[in-house]
Design brief:
The chain is 22% helix and 37% strand. With 162 residues, it is an alpha+beta fold. It has an eight-stranded antiparallel β-sheet with strand order 1-2-8-7-6-5-4-3, covered by helices on one side. Helix 1 crosses helix 3.
């Protein structure tokens, strides 16, 4: 079950979801970082990874492709990568530290909980207007679908051999 509740005071302009995944954190982290294209955007859309340099300052570039030919390019950098714990990225600049129109800071965290992993994904926005725009774009439905896809991959025994 996914919970959809902001986890910070309103002045942080944050949207967040959290859920329990019935798999150990090591497996969840491996799926997050090694199988990103399989869970990053809700189906029927798909993701192509251009580059993911999993380190602070590393490039994070993806393309989301829609079923009707839609194309959403995502270019940014990882601000923080703590293997096995969390990663933080932003679209406020490119890997060459060129400013671009910022929309959010994404924070994805995992931690051991009971017999599995607590997964929390948050989006922090510079303004209340940007937060509201993201919510109206379908944040809760989209990010919940993505967490469902991630959980399915992690909880599937076949993911152990990938």
């Amino acid at each position: 079950m996914t919970d959809c509740n902001p986890t910070k005071p309103e002045d942080v302009h944050e949207l967040s979801i959290t859920r329990h995944i019935a798999a150990p954190p090591e497996k969840v982290w491996r799926v997050i970082t090694e199988q990103t294209a399989q869970w990053w955007c809700p189906t029927p859309w798909r993701t192509e990874i251009i580059e993911q340099d999993w380190r602070s300052g590393g490039r994070n570039a993806t393309v989301m492709l829609g079923p009707d030919g839609e194309r959403e390019e995502g270019e940014g950098i990882f601000l923080e990568v703590k293997p096995g714990q969390r990663f933080v990225f932003t679209d406020a600049m490119t890997a060459d530290f060129e400013p671009q129109g910022p929309f959010m800071i994404g924070i994805f965290a995992i931690e051991a909980e009971d017999d599995g992993t607590r997964y929390t994904a948050s989006a922090r926005h510079w303004t209340e207007e940007a937060k509201k725009q993201h919510e109206e774009m379908g944040f809760f439905a989209g990010w919940t679908a993505v967490s469902d896809q991630l959980a399915e991959l992690c909880e599937n025994e076949m993911a152990d051999i990938i």
